């Protein structure tokens, strides 16, 4: 199985080196298959569900909810791919915001469908006895084990879509960070033919190809270390959102969150700051419901933070806040590196 993951890493890397168009075609095909699996789940609920299996509707209380909330940040990684890939797919800025909201709502609907299907098919007391609950649920609902295999294939397809989206978003993020001088410049170099951040894609693919051989324990550590880091990123975005609303009220905003004026946006920003701060508190030993990430995860988290801080303090100074701050930073980095000209991503 580890070798299978390595082969998949090579294939996904090759697809993404070839360009956003190839990657998006693969993504569209896999998503269509996932939608087909979703239709089978709906069909199963219609023809074979037993509402009494869902009783009781709520169990576990606050500890159960906290256990799920701790993993939520990692589940939300991927929606940021939409704005990160906007430069290549030429999506209007206002449409980008709408697509992010719609994609989140669709993901919520998908998770609810899976939970609803499983709870209607298998008695709640027996759920813990099944390793692949959703697959077993559809097999029970439609009366044949082949349907469980279909769901397993859908699960693998879901992994591939997440993998593909991660490669698209992470490689473009690394390209932008390299161009801004935050990480080594070679990660921002583009493929001469496909105009994609090939070095970043290759680095990520190599790491993904090695990861299966490190065992499930390492994967757990990465997820546990990544979740609080993601929350910090969300927190900083929320803070910057509030600062920009106050310092640059006239900034061009194709999609103005909170509507016209400043009150709506300020309220949403404050709520976002509070929620992300509370989410981060769940990782700290402050409450009876706080989770224990384990010392390996905290070591990984700390090392990663130190690396980020080191690259941050190496950024050029003297950048003035304003609409052209990004251009100022990129120009300063190029002067430091002795580079000129502009290198943009391709759209093929």
UniProtKB/TrEMBL annotation:
It is a multi-pass membrane protein. It comes from the Bacteria. One of its GO terms (molecular function) is transmembrane transporter activity. Its main location: membrane. It is found in: Cell membrane. GO terms for cellular component: plasma membrane. This is APC family permease. Keywords: Cell membrane, Membrane, Transmembrane, Transmembrane helix. It comes from Brevibacterium senegalense. The chain crosses the membrane at residues 25-48, 60-79, 99-122, 146-175, 196-215, 221-244, 265-283, 295-313. InterPro entries: AA/rel_permease1, APC_superfamily.
């Amino acid at each position: 199985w580890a070798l299978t993951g390595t082969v998949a890493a090579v294939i996904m890397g090759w697809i993404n080196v070839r360009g956003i168009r190839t990657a998006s075609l693969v993504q569209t095909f896999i998503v269509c298959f996932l939608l087909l699996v979703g239709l089978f789940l709906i069909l199963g609920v219609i023809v074979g569900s037993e509402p009494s299996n869902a009783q009781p509707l709520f169990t576990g209380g606050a500890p159960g909810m906290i256990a799920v909330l701790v993993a939520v940040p990692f589940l939300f990684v991927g929606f940021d791919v939409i704005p990160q890939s906007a430069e290549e797919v030429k999506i209007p800025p206002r449409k980008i915001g709408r697509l992010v909201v719609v994609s989140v709502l669709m993901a919520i609907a998908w998770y609810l469908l899976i939970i609803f299907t499983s709870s209607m098919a298998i008695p709640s007391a027996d759920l813990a006895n099944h390793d692949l609950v959703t697959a077993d649920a559809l097999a029970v609902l439609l009366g044949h084990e082949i349907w469980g295999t279909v769901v397993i294939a859908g699960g693998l397809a879901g992994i591939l879509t997440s993998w593909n989206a991660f490669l698209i978003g992470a490689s473009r993020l690394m390209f932008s960070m390299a161009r801004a001088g935050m990480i080594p410049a070679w990660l921002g170099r583009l493929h001469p033919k496909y105009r994609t951040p090939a070095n970043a894609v290759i680095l990520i693919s190599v790491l993904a190809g090695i990861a299966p051989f490190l065992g499930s324990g390492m994967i757990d550590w990465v997820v546990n270390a990544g979740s609080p880091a993601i929350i910090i990123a969300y927190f900083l975005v929320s803070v910057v959102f509030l600062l920009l609303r106050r310092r640059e009220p006239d900034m061009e905003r194709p999609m103005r969150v909170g509507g016209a004026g400043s009150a709506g946006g300020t309220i949403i920003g404050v709520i976002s700051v509070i929620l992300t701060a509370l989410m981060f508190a769940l990782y700290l030993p402050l409450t009876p419901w706080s989770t224990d990430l384990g010392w390996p995860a905290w070591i990984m988290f700390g090392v990663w933070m130190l690396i980020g801080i080191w690259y941050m303090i190496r950024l050029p100074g003297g950048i003035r806040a304003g609409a052209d701050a990004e251009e100022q930073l990129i120009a300063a980095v190029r002067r430091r590196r002795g580079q000129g000209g502009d290198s943009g991503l391709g759209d093929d």
